[in-house]
Amino acid sequence: MEVQMVAGPVGSPELKEKDLLRVAKRLGRDWWQVAIFLGVDTTKLKIDDESIDAVKQGYLMLYEWYRNCDPETRTHATLRAALEEAECVAAMECLSLDAK
Q1: Which of 2, 40, 71, 76 could form a disulfide with 35 if both were Cys (CB 3.0 to 4.6 A apart)?
Q2: How far is the CA of 45 from the CAs of 3, 14, 48, 58, in angstroms?
Q3: Can you tell me the distance from the alpha carbon of 74 to that of 68, in angstroms, rounded to the nearest whole number?
Q4: What is the pLDDT of residues 39-95, one digit of tens each?
């Protein structure tokens, strides 16, 4: 597996969309907590509140963050820190496995 590195002080692998999906699958309904720590304005997301698809909701939130954040902070380390703050251990472990 090829790992791209981001130039910068963190030295954390750059995230890809497939990484976001893997994390979203583990987040479940806790995705909104991670949104708070990532600074994502969930009111701007096009999420159907009646939808029971928590994976899709989580992915949309993560993708919104991914698209709008500074490329230097679009790393495993940044996302892992937000997951840790939100106490989303399963998603954090998934991300840690991807970084290896």
Answers
A1: 40
A2: 30, 23, 9, 11
A3: 9
A4: 998 887 776 666 678 888 899 999 999 999 888 888 889 999 999 999 998 898 887
